[in-house]
Known about the structure:
The structure holds two protein chains of two kinds. By secondary structure, chain A is mainly beta. Chain A is built from one helix and eight strands. Chain B has an eight-stranded antiparallel barrel. In chain B, strand 44 and strand 45 form a beta hairpin. Chain B is rod-shaped.
Amino acid sequence: MKRTLFYITISVLASFLAASCEMEEVTFDESLLIGKWQSGTLYYKYLEDGTGATWDEGDDVFEDEAQEFTWTLVKSELTHIHILEMGGTVPKVYTVTELTAATLKYHDDFGKSFSFIKVNP
Amino acid sequence: MKKFIKIFFISVASLLAVLIIGICIALWLVFTPERITPIVRNQADKYIACRSEIGAVELTFFSTFPRFGLKVNRFTLINPVADAPSDTLVHADKLVGVLDAAAWWKNKELIITEFVLTNGTIHAFKDGLGHTNFNILIPDTVAKSKTGSEAMFSIIDFRNVELNNINLVYIDILSDLKADIRNLSAKITGTINHDIISGNVKLSRSDISLERKGENYFQHVSVRCAIPAEIIQFGQKIKLHEASVSIDDLEILLDGDIETDSLGKNIIANISYKLRSWPVKNILALVPAGFNSFLTGIDMDGLLTSEGKISGILNDSLMPLMNIHFLLENAMVKYNGFPLPIHDINCDVSFCSDMKTDSLSFVRINYLNAKTPQSNVATKGLVYHLFSDVTCKLTSNAGLTLDEFNTLLPGTMKLNLAGHLSGRILSDFSINQIRNMQLEKMKLSGSVILSDFCAVYDSISIHTDRSILEFKLPNPDASSKNTGYAFAVIASDNMDAGKIESYHASLQNSVIAWETSDVRDTTGTPAIICSFQMDSLTAVMDTIRFAVTKPNGKISVSTDDDQSGQSKISLTYNSGILETDIGQNSAKIEKINIRSDVLHDSTVEDFFLQGMAKGFVEMERGSINLSALSYPIEIPAIIMNFESETLNIKESRVNIDKSDFQLIGNLINVLSYFRGDSILRGNFSFVSATTDILQLMSLTSGIGNADTTVMENPEGADKDSSYTGPYIVPKGIDITLSTNIKQATFGIDTATNIVGSMQVHDGILLLDEITFATSAAKMQLSAMYRTPRKNHLFLGLDYHMLDVEIGELLTMIPDIDTLMPMLRSFGGKGEFHIAVETYLDSLYNIKKSTLRGASSIKGNDLVLMDGETFSEIAKTLRFNKQTENRVDSLSAEFTIFREEIDIYPFLIVMDKYKAVVAGRHNFDLSFDYHISVVDSPLPVKLGVDIKGTMDELDYALVKCRYAEFYRPASRQVVENRQLELRKMIRDALTQKVLD
């Protein structure tokens, strides 16, 4: 009996979850993304050709030693494809929540948020 | 008969008595001084222009027996002349003259049997205008001419002219000449027969002083002579017959004749001289005081003997041929400017010259020996071409004690010599050759022995117990056509050289031979052949020590004849044990063979291209101890050929502690590398039974890095083989090693059967698809290690593990756990691929912001997670109690980015469940997983979110996020995106796996 109740409860919860509504996805202007963004010692740089570079001065790494990636921004989905020199790629997908001329905010699927401000190139 | 004799003697006696009586009557009664004196005075007045004072004149017979003579007492001629010191021209106490009156009467012969002047003085004077006081004869107009004299006497004969104790003073104001002869005793005999005068002048005593222009040329010198002479044609020719002239007992003998050729204005001499054992001191005493300055500080002695002959014509353009022989015996010289007295000088020299003709002139030194207190020199030979280029051909011997020559060296030279030098030198050279330093035209050879030799120059010293130096210039036995300039060989029992507090070198039983072309010719490279052989050579400088036994070899430098600037250098070197210490580092090689040829082209501007070398090196049983290493590098053997750009290692075996390897291959661009034109390229086979990789890294770290900061060892680095400092990849080289290593250790990690390629490429270390086996798996590894700067080291790995036992893998290579902590959650065998790259700091700490990685794992029958976690999940999902935490099948991809490990959705099958798992694992050991149960006994599809840490788990039922995963027909957009990413990750990872 207990087992039956458990299953029922699970099913009810599952139906609630299944019926939840999806929010309409926001579209951001990717041209605003072009430039250098800073969050503490962490930097991202987006170029118009879809490439970019990132570095963290806190780790004694500077812009000329930055690691490259490619990027796409589709609606609110910002995808970084980090390309390994040894072969292989590391995709990172984020959801942009704010993109202005001065501010960039996004988060990943695990709820980790990032906030950047634009700095002079 | 007796009576006749008696009568005869009585008759003779009577005749004599009558004759004597007659003579006595004539002397004392008839020709008394009272009668004769006026006659003589009257006759004197007729012939003498000046005033004369004639004392009593006596007729002599017995004193002039057997002839009658005239004896004049107190004979004086007075002729005062202005400025003359005395108005007396001649004064004599006694004058005796004997004339052969019968000859005069019968044959018209003037025979002066005796003319004796005793105790007299003569003052001859000539004033500044040429007026003399001795021109006193009244001109005889009748008998003035020569012809008249000849007509008067057919013969004039001076049987005996004697001057006894005569003082003669001659003063010539015009010539500023003063001669003073004291105590003159002379005897003159001679005849005048037509134009021939023959006689003998004997000067038995005199005291001569001669002064001219204020210079005393002689002062009271004793002059004696005996001059038998014959004068022909009144001075046209003079013949001397063993004439002797002696000045202060310095006697010279003269013989021969001198002839005057008035037409040709020639003097024709044919005269020989001889002097014997003249004391040099006495000769010097005759040097006028005005010239004594030349002898100041000089003290000389010895005996000079000389003889010679002067023959030939003397005129304005010709000199007679002089053939002179000098002999100097037991001479000595002391000179203030030369601190060493020279003694035992013996010299035998011949001189021949007409002072003009080169072919006839020479000086022959038969011997010249001299000694200093401790040394001796001797020479002999010939000096010729005296009037063009004086040429010497000498043989010299010397035995020098060098200590005594230190006083000759300038104090500023700071040179001190000691020891003994002996030897012989043969020389043939000219003065012009010396002046122009034309060594190539000289002939010099010799042999010099140095014994207990020591030379100290400032702080530099050289010492040898015994060395022999032989040299020849030119080289008569040249080994090549271009090394005929000079030859030298030095053989030393031992030789030490060094500089105080700097360096020191020592040779034992060495022989060094040297042939060369003219090294002064700077237009080209000199040709040189140098061979050497010695028992040992040691050298020390600061903390550097070098010692080698039995080194021998030969260095040849040959040049082309066409002056193209090319030269060839050949080197042959063999030695026994070579040991060297440099600070705390040392090396020992028991045998070395080197052969090398270098083609040197001086016309090439680039220094590195000037020398093109090739040859080979062979070394055996070498050992190198480096302070940076705890273990010596043992080199059992190395054989290599080399050229300018290529090094071909045919064999090399090296042992370092537990490592051993054999390196065979080629190194190219060697010269270009040192020129800076190219990187050094190499391709080697590296075969090893055991290799400690860290040891090899410490050996090669930092090579070619100009930035010294990259060479600094990080803090904490020690000298042990477990080198912890950052390995700085050599720059400027491109070396590829085809490795075949049975067993390799890297710190605590061990791998076996490592086969593959390792490349060091200008600061980048590449391991290209190296396969190796561990107890856990067969692996394939590609890696890149780059060192742009000391605190920024790039490490990239492309790791493929096939059929891996994950648990053992983590035990064997713990570092993998750092990169991928998820592996701790799996057990069993699987297929594992990972590409990861990151930058490291100088202590090899990962710079997490640079960490990137992608991994793919695939396996069956894996054990998932730890038992406690599994139990919680199994309890939540109502697994059968018998269910193990085993994953039936697993195929997953996950990425590493900075501190995040993202696990892409993958399907696992456990028990009666199929679930899709995805999530994130963080380096702080927190995680966030979602499990969608897509197939289970439940009527609904549920999901579970698991968050937190292993110590504090938080899980909850959630909507099944991947409900239709792996079911393409019903996949949603997000799921498709995830699948695309997974495929991209896996394809990129697995495409490099070798079949």
